């Protein structure tokens, strides 16, 4: 690993100023970043730690508000989340392993932009938004707008994710299912999130494309005929380009999509209040 300087700013303004350097990179949990640095994929000369910025709170006032530095384990074990957004708790229990969840943060997980991550498709289906801070101020955008491609987010160099907001689940039914080819906490070959709100449905595919993708064609089929899951799956396959990787061939993933789309929809319908 190349040598680097570690800085720990005490304010968001100081952190943003330090990031105005091509050789600087933000450090949240560091679980993915350190692996990339060891592999030589990233070689920042300065890491800007975000741990002293007070961005680790989890609270709710109708909507769930998660600080970007909240760990995945804190989110998983939160009674507030388990009671009001149980789909998040269930998804987190099989996200990597507990050692990683103890360190990894939600902001880092979203910014990393690996299409195999479990949270982005689920948060997209839940219509969550991220708060992004930069020199020009603060803005809120849908989670889906974060992603441009494989390991590529849409943040500017001097911008940071500072929080995530998830709307109240209310009477919506939600599910996230994934298929792994090894252990249950492995990277998925396919992950599908489904959220049902009356006649409306949001379906998001992860792990099989270069970024988490909303399956709008499948949603349209199901809006016309809510029982035509088979046709919805074929519409989804016609919409997206399924990619092969170490977790499965494109043909294998296409078959997984056909199976897991139906299962995710069934589980979400079963969870409708």
Write the layout of secondary structure elements.
Layout: E1 5-7, H1 12-18, E2 24-27, H2 31-38, E3 46-49, E4 58-61, E5 63-67, H3 72-77, H4 79-84, H5 86-92, H6 98-101, H7 106-112, H8 119-125, E6 129-134, E7 137-142, E8 147-149, E9 152-153, E10 160-166, E11 173-180, E12 188-197, E13 200-206, E14 213-214, H9 216-224, H10 229-239, H11 250-270
Parallel strand pairs: 1-3, 2-3
Antiparallel strand pairs: 4-5, 5-10, 6-7, 6-10, 8-9, 11-12, 12-13, 13-14
Helix pairs in contact: 9-10, 10-11
- Rg from C-alpha positions? 19 Å
Largest sheet: 5 strands, antiparallel
Judged by helices, strands and strand pairing, the structural class is alpha+beta
Q: Which residue ranges are poorly predicted, with pLDDT under 50 across at least 5 consecutive positions?
A: none
Number of domains: 2
Outline: globular
Which CATH architecture of the largest domain is right? 2-Layer Sandwich
Beta-strand share of residues: 25-35%
- Sequence of secondary-structure elements: EHEHEEEHHHHHHEEEEEEEEEHHH
What is the CATH first-level class name of the largest domain? Alpha Beta
Q: Give average pLDDT, whole number.
A: 95
Number of helices: 11
List keywords for this structure.
Enolase-like, domain 1; alpha+beta; 26% strand; five-stranded antiparallel beta sheet; 2 domains; four-stranded antiparallel beta sheet; 34% helix
Please characterize this protein's 3D structure.
- Helix content is 34%, strand content 26%.
- It is of the alpha+beta class and 273 residues long.
- It has two domains: 58-166, 2-Layer Sandwich (Uridine Diphospho-n-acetylenolpyruvylglucosamine Reductase, domain 3); 177-270, 2-Layer Sandwich (Enolase-like, domain 1).
- The strands form four sheets. Strands 4-5-10-6-7 form a five-stranded antiparallel beta sheet, with helices on one face. Strands 11-12-13-14 form a four-stranded antiparallel beta sheet, sandwiched between helices.
- The radius of gyration is 19 Å and the shape is globular.
- The termini are far apart.
């Amino acid at each position: 690993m190349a040598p680097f300087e570690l800085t720990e700013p005490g304010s968001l303004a100081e952190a943003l100023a330090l990031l105005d350097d091509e050789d600087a990179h933000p450090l949240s949990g560091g679980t993915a970043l350190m692996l990339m640095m060891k592999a030589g994929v990233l070689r920042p000369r300065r890491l800007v730690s975000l741990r002293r910025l007070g961005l680790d709170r989890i609270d709710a006032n109708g909507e769930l508000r998660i600080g970007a530095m909240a760990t995945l384990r804190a989110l998983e074990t939160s009674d507030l989340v388990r009671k009001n957004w149980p789909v998040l708790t269930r998804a987190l229990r099989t996200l990597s392993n507990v050692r990683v969840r103890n360190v990894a943060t939600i902001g880092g997980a979203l910014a990393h932009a690996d299409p195999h991550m479990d949270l982005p498709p689920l948060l997209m289906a839940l219509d969550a938004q991220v708060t992004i801070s930069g020199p020009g101020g603060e803005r809120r955008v849908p989670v889906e707008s974060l992603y441009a491609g494989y390991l590529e987010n849409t943040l500017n160099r001097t911008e940071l994710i500072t929080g995530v907001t998830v709307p109240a689940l209310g009477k919506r039914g939600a599910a996230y299912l994934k298929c792994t080819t090894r252990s249950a906490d492995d990277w998925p070959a396919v992950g599908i999130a489904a959220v049902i709100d009356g006649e409306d449905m949001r379906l998001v595919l992860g792990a099989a494309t270069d970024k988490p993708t909303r399956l709008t064609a499948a949603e349209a089929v199901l809006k016309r005929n809510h029982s035509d899951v088979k046709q919805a799956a074929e519409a989804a396959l016609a919409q997206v380009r399924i990619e092969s990787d170490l977790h499965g061939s494109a043909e294998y993933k296409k078959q997984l999509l056909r199976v897991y789309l139906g299962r995710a929809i069934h589980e979400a319908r079963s969870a409708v209040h």
